[in-house]
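Researcher: Next sequence.
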Amino acid sequence: MNDEANIAAEKAEISRIIHSSIGWAATKDKELVFGCFADDPELFWFSPRDDGTIHGYKAFVDLTEGFFMLDDFKAIRYEVKELHISLSRSGDVAWYHARLDDFNEWKGQPANWEDVRWTGVLEKRDGRWVIVQMHFSSASDKT
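Model: Next structure:
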């Protein structure tokens, strides 16, 4: 992975996957979101709250169906800030870090993540990038 044009194209596709993994909720496009993640029992992410932590693709599908697809959940808008993407030398693994503002409603009440730290790992499988691991956290030193 030393051709700058190829690296730029790969990073653009990775960025699209990262944005789609959050932005899908505006239209509740399940096909889009399910395509962003590895259909793998080792899929994992930490959420700022333990009850949102996911281990395995089935748990991810269950969360999507049982929370995000409900009429009680409404995506308002999101913003990914300071996104930085790195690629492995082999070109089949990538990792990123960013800050995320994710504004939503649950039963008409705000359900927002503001200035959340967001990291993740993607792997290129069968010619396409999928997220295999993510971590969301809020800084404990924020006042």
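Model: The longest strand covers residues 73-87. Residues 32 and 133 are 17 Å apart (CA to CA).
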